[in-house]
């Protein structure tokens, strides 16, 4: 019984880690100090990056929920 509970906990933590990794990936790419990045000179670049990261994280969470991975 304890192994079953641990398996469910690990599936949940893996799902949460995957959603957080998507956010870290997007913000990591947008935080690079190289030329040619979108919104580099925009005053709303930070907000737009956060919005894109949240949209992708939400889409990942919905996908995992539909696949019933985090149950």
Automatic annotation (TrEMBL):
One of its GO terms (cellular component) is membrane. It is a multi-pass membrane protein. GO terms for molecular function: metal ion transmembrane transporter activity. Its main location: membrane. It comes from the Bacteria. Keywords: Membrane, Transmembrane, Transmembrane helix. The chain crosses the membrane at residues 12-34, 46-64. It is found in: Membrane. Pfam families: CorA. This is Uncharacterized protein. It comes from Limosilactobacillus panis DSM 6035.
């Amino acid at each position: 019984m304890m192994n079953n509970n641990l398996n469910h906990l690990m599936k949940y933590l893996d799902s949460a880690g995957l959603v957080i990794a998507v956010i870290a990936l997007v913000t990591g790419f947008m935080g690079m100090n190289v030329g040619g990045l979108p919104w580099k000179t925009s005053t709303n670049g930070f907000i737009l990056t956060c919005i894109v990261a949240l949209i992708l994280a939400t889409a990942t969470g919905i996908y995992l929920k539909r696949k019933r991975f985090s149950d």
